[in-house]
Amino acid sequence: MGVCCERSKGRRVVLGLFIVLTLTISLLLVLILANVFQIKSKAMWIEMCIQILNAILTCAALIVHPGRFLTLMRLVCYSSNSDVAAENAIQTSFPSLPVEFLDQENPQGINVPIRKLLLFMFVLNLQCFLQYPVTITVWFYSYTHRPYYIIAIALALSCLCTILAVVWEHQMHQTTIRYRAKRAESAIERFLVEDTSI
């Protein structure tokens, strides 16, 4: 239990540092572009901010993408409800969501069907994949000949994937929490009814 809490806390710290660093560099870039700072080598500072941001986002994609891709492949390859090892691996990837393994057309209670998780993981993998064109464009083109429209399109689609995934995941978690709360409430009510009838 302690090890899990420490890992979870460590992940939150790393995620927090990543967000703070990304927002700080992004803000600095915007301020430089808006001529808030009177600096002589503006182009150099802009390029430096772009390179740092690209390196941060590329590292983040390379860290999370293997796990996301493995989960996507597990969901794609899952074909029967008799493969207990595959079911355990899939459920481990979604610890706070109950996964439906029996009836995909009519999931029980709030169980999330495989097809929904498959689509969700596709969105998360697409978010990572969209970072790679940005990386190639930034690292292999000089800033004077760089096709910035590639970066703009990839970043816009990546942001859209991020927002969609965050909202979707939040909605699934909230549904699970509400359902479990209702079940717990009805169980308490049944207990009280049985207790008073004695």
UniProtKB/TrEMBL annotation:
Pfam families cross-referenced by the UniProt entry: DUF2985
Keyword field contains Transmembrane helix: yes
Coiled coil: none
InterPro entries attached to this UniProt entry: DUF2985
Keywords, ordered alphabetically: Membrane, Transmembrane, Transmembrane helix
Transmembrane intervals: 12-37, 43-64, 117-142, 148-168
Protein name, as recorded: Transmembrane protein
